[in-house]
Design a protein that fits this description.
By secondary structure, the protein is an alpha/beta fold. 46% of the residues lie in helices and 18% in strands. The chain contains 8 helices and 7 strands, in the order E-H-E-H-E-H-E-H-E-H-H-H-H-E-E.
């Protein structure tokens, strides 16, 4: 039985997410603000955290940092209406593992939660991932690496996102990390008029 902590100031969303958890056989713990969420997190074994970005007093960005100060290991999924890559990068830097866009789509959320619950989350260095940095999860890196190496082809961010179950913004941020360390390269296809299509491939 997996325990899911949900932090959101919207009671309707808390109810909906709790019902999704119950449907999947997961136990939901709910909090209407970050302070209550921190207390629950400290007092219970939590396998995954869902936290909303826009909340009064203490927002989700600060909430992620406070949660990460307690544990580096538990996956944190952020709910947001923001599709900005800048916002996504800031959350990953703060310690978030992934994102889910509002309005919530149950099948997408269930898939995303299942992906993270199926991996043993870790924040330690790995011989296959040089240059571990703050906000980068080795587990998420390994999920993307495994998918790219297994398929051995050039792929778009959307393809990798769909194949791994990770959000587009998350994949984008981690591909940048891989490119910074020379294990992934980018190829641009100018075959059609307009914005070139970007393809990524594993080179290590």
């Amino acid at each position: 039985m997996k325990n899911i902590l949900i932090i959101d100031d919207n009671e309707d969303i808390l109810f909906s997410l709790s019902e999704i958890c119950v449907y999947k056989g997961w136990t939901p713990f709910t909090a209407t603000n970050v302070e209550k969420g921190l207390d629950i997190f400290k007092d219970n074994h939590i396998d995954l955290i869902i936290i909303d970005y826009h909340m009064p007093v203490i927002n989700g960005m600060i909430g992620v940092k406070l949660l990460r100060a307690i544990s580096d290991e538990v996956p944190i999924l952020v709910l947001t209406v923001e599709e900005s890559q800048e916002v996504a990068d800031s959350f990953i830097e703060a310690g978030a593992s992934d994102f889910a866009l509002k309005p919530i789509k149950a099948p997408d959320l269930i898939s995303r939660l299942s992906v993270h619950l199926s991996f043993k989350y870790k924040k330690t260095k790995s011989k296959s991932h040089k240059g571990y940095v703050k906000g980068i999860s080795v587990t998420t890196l390994e999920m993307i690496e495994s998918y790219m190496v297994r398929n051995k082809e050039k792929m778009t961010i959307s393809t990798i996102s769909k194949g791994t179950g990770l959000a587009y913004q998350t994949v984008h941020r981690y591909l940048q990390h891989f490119m910074d360390h020379g294990v992934v390269e980018l190829e641009q296809d100018y075959g059609k008029i307009g914005r070139p299509k970007q393809y990524f491939f594993w080179v290590e």
